[in-house]
UniProtKB/TrEMBL annotation:
Pathway: Cofactor biosynthesis; D-erythroascorbate biosynthesis; dehydro-D-arabinono-1,4-lactone from D-arabinose: step 2/2
Domain of life, source organism: Eukaryota
InterPro entries registered for this protein in UniProt: ALO_C, FAD-bd_PCMH, FAD-bd_PCMH-like_sf, FAD-bd_PCMH_sub1, FAD-bd_PCMH_sub2, FAD_lactone_oxidase-like, Oxid_FAD_bind_N, Sugar_lactone_oxidase
Single Gene Ontology MF annotation: FAD binding
Residue ranges constituting the FAD-binding PCMH-type domain according to the UniProt record: 24-194
A single GO cellular-component term on record: mitochondrial membrane
Tagged with keyword Coiled coil: no
Family: Belongs to the oxygen-dependent FAD-linked oxidoreductase family.
Subcellular localization: Membrane; Mitochondrion membrane
Protein name per Swiss-Prot or TrEMBL: D-arabinono-1,4-lactone oxidase
Cofactor(s) it depends on: FAD
Length: 458
């Protein structure tokens, strides 16, 4: 490929890309770090000229091969300006590569905040939107649902500005577009006045939660819970807005770092050879770290986020809210009765999200419960997880589950068509905006275009 001077300046030596959990990797032919819109336009033109796949990446935090490419990779980290903060109308406009943690800090300084966040803020804003990243709160939608305007660079139609009033179909499609429609250049997001949250975290038995599920889900603005597999224990985390004095969580070096991180990782490593001891470890860690009630007051974004420890395999699906109890009972029954001799790390995370009208959002047209399972990879070492995934996916599918797009899953195009009413429209739009498929990588070909021979390297 022949690059002009500017492209040479912003391109790097092709280097291996690994996602955060180091489960997937790829070696792009060329690697770019653009600094402005013109740079990105040039890269897309190059991809078109040589018919190469082109992929924008944010923080590379997607746990699947979603961000991978063997073609041109665009790292968006240098395309990260906050363009405008409108304090009166409570909106922010930012370039796509802006990390969510930077946005949180700048918004806080300007008396604003995002309404809801996921467990981390490492993501780029476009990466978070592209996969409908969500937090928890039954009356709170995912991050994409707060976007009010978006600018997309497409292969066939150049730059498209879209919002509810302008190119509404492109807008609804691109708010969760997994990189398939083009490169998101900038987004305008609705915020709210900066706020503090008071959180309460306390233990509760699995059956007590399920027997009171409706009232628990609605008992605070933000509710999530963690089930400790092979035990009856859960912890509930609830948070509501407050004007109380700050009372932040303080880190205890010994407890939070030496025991809960290092010793725990070491024990998980050892138990790769003695997995039947995992139930005991889950119980001990629950007793040590989670059996006490805790209450904190802090700025919203600090409360939403928490330490996700170390790399992990993860699978997460959204099912209709009303199916939560039944689905969790089946999962609990399978894990706790040890039906297939499979041992599971904690936590199984349960969260809730409001419905939206974004075409490929797992919460399209229905309030949902997100259920996520993880298996840690102590010191980046593999652990067995495939049997757990197979059973978990079977349960989720049977409740018309929709997988989190960022996470590895085995849904076929035909299954996705059935569960997403707007799936065919999305594909039609994709073909019109990207007729030569330069934005399609293996993940997208596999799941959106039924090319099941394009396997994930898992
Ligand atoms: C520790 C951890 C915790 C997490 N917690 C949560 C959580 O609480 N809730 C939740 O819902 N998810 C969660 N996730 C998943 C995470 O939010 C998503 O994977 C998110 O997409 C990652 O953002 P990123 O910037 O790393 O995007 P990447 O992984 O780099 O990319 C994701 C997708 O976005 C596309 N993309 C990136 N930038 C652009 C752009 N400018 N234009 C077009 N497409 C683009 C990529 O091509 C790719 O398809 C978590 C992941 C990890 C590793």
């Amino acid at each position: 490929m022949i690059l002009d001077d500017r492209l040479k300046q912003i391109s790097g030596v092709s280097k291996k890309f690994s996602n955060w959990s180091k489960v997937f990797e790829c070696k792009p032919e060329l690697f770019f770090m653009p600094e402005n819109e013109d740079d990105i336009i040039k890269i897309v033109e190059l991809a078109k000229r040589y018919n190469k796949n082109v992929r924008a990446i944010g923080a590379g935090h997607s746990p699947s091969d979603l961000a991978c490419t063997e073609g041109l990779m665009i790292n968006m980290d240098n395309f990260n300006k906050i363009i405008e903060i409108d304090s009166e109308n409570k909106t922010v406009t930012a370039e796509a590569g802006t990390r969510v943690y930077k946005l949180n800090e700048v918004l806080q300084k300007n008396g604003l905040a995002l309404s809801n966040l996921g467990s981390i803020s490492e993501q780029s804003i476009a990466g978070a939107i592209s996969t409908a990243t969500h937090g928890s709160g039954i009356n709170f939608g995912n991050i994409s649902s707060r976007v009010i305007r978006l600018t997309l660079l497409t292969a066939s139609k150049g730059i498209i500005n879209c919002s509810a009033d302008e190119n509404d179909d492109v807008f609804k499609a691109s708010l969760c577009s997994i990189g398939a429609l083009g490169i998101i250049l900038k987004v305008k997001i609705r915020c709210e006045s900066a706020f503090k949250l008071e959180s309460k975290q306390f233990p509760m038995k699995f059956n007590d939660i399920l027997n009171n599920l409706d009232s628990i889900v609605n008992s605070a603005e933000h509710v999530r819970f963690w089930y400790f597999p092979h035990t009856e224990n859960c912890i509930i985390w609830k948070a509501d807005k407050t004007i109380k004095e700050l009372n932040p969580q303080k880190q205890n070096y010994f407890k939070d770092y030496i025991i809960s991180f290092h010793l725990y990782q070491f024990l998980l490593y050892i138990l790769r050879y003695f997995p039947s001891k995992l139930p005991l470890l889950n119980q001990k860690m629950f007793n040590y770290k989670f059996s006490q009630e805790k209450q904190f007051v802090d700025d919203s974004y600090k409360q939403f986020n928490f330490d996700c420890l170390f790399p992990q395999y993860t699978s997460e699906w959204a099912i209709p809210l009303e199916k939560t109890k039944e689905a969790l009972e089946r999962l609990y029954d399978w894990i706790n009765n040890n039906k297939d001799n499979v041992f599971v790390h904690y936590p199984v995370e349960v969260r809730f999200s409001d419905k939206d009208d974004i075409w490929l959002s797992p919460a399209y047209n229905r309030k949902v419960c997100y259920i996520g399972v993880i298996m840690y990879r102590p010191y980046d070492k593999p652990v067995s997880y495939k049997k757990l995934w197979a059973v978990f996916e079977k349960i989720m599918r049977s409740y018309d589950g929709r997988p989190h797009w960022a996470k590895a899953h085995t849904m076929t195009t035909i299954e996705l068509e059935k569960t997403y009413p707007k799936f065919k429209e999305f594909i039609k739009l994709q073909k019109s905006l990207d007729p030569n498929g330069i934005f399609l990588n293996s993940y997208l070909k596999r799941h959106l275009f039924n090319q099941m021979d394009v396997k994930a390297k898992l």
